[in-house]
Amino acid sequence: MKAVIVTDQGVQVREVPDPKPGPQEVLVRVRAAGLNRADLGVASGQAHGRMGGAGTIIGLEFAGEVVSVGSEVPGTIAPGMRVMCSGSGGYAEYAVADWGRCSPLPDSNMGWVQAATLPVALQTMHDAVVTNGGLQAGESILIQGASSGVGLMGMQIAKAMGARLVLGGSRNPAARARFAEYGCDLAVDTADQAWPDTVLEATGGKGVEVIVDQVSGSVANGNLRACAILGRIVNVGRLGGAKAEFDFDLHALRRIRYVGVTFRTRSVEEVREINRRMRADLWAAVEAGKLRLPVDRVFPLAEAAAALEHMKANAHFGKIVLEC
Q1: pTM of the predicted model as reported, rounded to 2 decimal places
Q2: For domain 2-118+293-323, which architecture applies?
Q3: Any coiled-coil ranges, and where (predicted)?
Q4: What tens digit of pLDDT does each residue of 276-317 get?
Q5: Are 59 and 68 in contact (CB under 8 A)?
C-alpha cells in the first residue's frame, strides 16, 4: 500500500506492507485522513507518545470502510461498515485502530472528508470541556486557540452542553470574524494585552468558570485573571509556549483547579472511555449535522508534504484533509 512515512530526507510517500489488525483492532481502507498539529512534530522526527522516528506512518485520524476485524472485536463493528477512527498511521491506504476508537458514520450523507475531520476534535474537546472542565449548563467558558479545528469544535460542544456564554480567543482577526458560525458568543483578541479585561467585562467581573487552553505560555497568567473563583483551567496544548512565568498567588487566590491533559500517556482503556462518553453526549448532534468543522483544503495523499507545509504556515481556518 501507499503510505506517508518519515524518512531522513523528509516526509515521503512510499510503498509499505499492509498493516495487520491485532485481536482487538480493526483494519480500515482509508478514504480520507485529517491533519492535526501533532503531525508536524512527528513529520519533523519528534516523538508523539509511542509514535515517532524514521519509518513512522503519520496520521492520528481517518475515515473509511472496515475491511476486517480482530478476533476479540465486539460484533458492533463488522466488515463493510463506514467508520471514523482515531489512532495512528492514518496517512495511508490502509490503517488499523483499536475497536474502541472507531465510530460508525451516521446514516446521513456524511462524506469521507467531513468524517475525517471529526474524531480527534470530538474526543479531545468533550474530554476537556465536559469530563475535565466539568462545564455545567448555565456556566461560561473560554476556548483559547479557538481558530483550530479542535478549538472550533470546543465552542460547539460547549454550546451543545448548555453553556450560557461561549468565548473564543485568537490573535487572527479573520478567524475571529467567523467564530459566531461555530457557537461563539464573543470573540476575544488575545493579541491585545488587555484581553482578560474583555473577559471580565463580558462576565460582569466574575470571570469564566471554564477555560480550555491550547496556547499556554503566552496566555497563562491572563487565564488566571480571566478565570472565576473556583473555576477550572484545562491545559490541552502549548502552541504559545511550553514554559512561562506563572502567578501562583493569583492561582491560589482564585482557588482555580488547573488540569493538564494529553492522549499520549493514556491507556487504551482510558481512550475507549473517552470515546464512549463523547458518543453518549454528542452522537445525536453529530448525526443531525449540528457538530461540524469547516474544511480549509483537501490534498491528495501524494501531496502530503505540501499539506503539512500548508498547516505549518498557520494560515488555514478549520481542517486540512488528505484524500486517500
Answers
A1: 0.96
A2: Alpha-Beta Complex (3.90)
A3: none
A4: 999 999 999 999 999 999 999 999 999 999 999 999 998 899
A5: no
